[in-house]
Sequence to fold (422 residues):
Amino acid sequence: MPQNQIADMKIHTIIAIQILLGFSFLSAQDCDEQRFYEPVFNGVDVDFGIKYGEAPQPNILNPNASQELNLNFYEPEGDTMEERPLIIWAFGGSFVAGSNLSPDIVQLCNYFSRLGYVNASIEYRLTTDLIWDNSTENAYTAVMKGMSDMKAAVRFFYKDALTDNEFRVDTSRIYVGGVSAGAIAAVHLAYLDEIDEVPAEIYQDFIDNGGFEGNSGNLAYGSDIAGVINLSGGLKDTEWMKPGDEPIVSMHGTEDGTVPYGTEILTTLGVNLLFSGSASVHERADEVGIENAFYTWHGAGHTPFVLNNEYMDTTQRFVRDFLYDQMCNSSTPIFELSGNEMNAVLSPNPSSGLASIDYESEMIKPSRLEIIDINGRRMDLKYELLDKKININGSDFPSGIYFLKIFDNDHNLLWTASWIKN
Fold:
């Protein structure tokens, strides 16, 4: 490449980085002092039993019965931020059991509240007759009720933001997530969003119960979400995931005997239903360009983080890192070209596609490299991890500006740099 073109690309790189850094400051100014990444709050205040909705829940004795839906609200003690991101959590239990006081849900709510989020652990209607009626139709209905109730919880906070603003939630940053059945409800809420996707077995029941918005309360308010947290859950049909859909972060064990890791027959409670677990969900996300992060617990079973602090620590950090990237670095995947803990050097730069990253540290152990283009898209980069050296091959990339990130085994960001492909 002629020297004047190389110089021009370098100038454009500097300008691009300055622009991206400027946008990052505007979008992430509330991330100062490591909010959302470090536990900047010592205490958590919890408000129990807040009614957020009500929905039909007929039983044998009363076909017209309804259920009041409550949530527990967690917030950082002494927090003064006016607009705070919210995570809505739903518990696991195969849609037939469970509680929003489940120890794993409580632990997650407390952890993310100390980081600076507000959290809501919701009740949702259970479908206990799945125990003796494990028909496909009843299984679909169980998921539909969970979706409906979770969406009512989302709208509850939209309503509050427009009225009393008691909870001080930034409605542009509402994330939904859960464990097992709760995760399944959250994933379906995000991606089952077109009428021709509704299974024929429940189509009329779906319409009668409020359609996509459901019948659990707070209608006429917004229900958009910013992303999904999927812990050992999945989706009936990954074809429902389309370009532009909400980002998703998932964690799943390869030996999960309750919810399939990939696409298999789900046999929980005797329900014989082809179902796609997290691995298949993220294959589809990669195919259609949905921003995502996936962590596999090799050899682990269902929800290994429950009552296991080692797995829980990994869960918290992995979800934290994904959300932090969404919240604080959303305008660009690379925000600063400093903090070179690896003392690394990228060369040649520019290059025709082959380059290497040499580093000196004996203590730093890089485990993963990411590359992102100027539009924020993650690229599929071939690379080789060697001793104190990483070889990269981007020969098939279009000419342009790219950004590199190196992480360690704990998903900590070690190093960033810009790279020019000529």
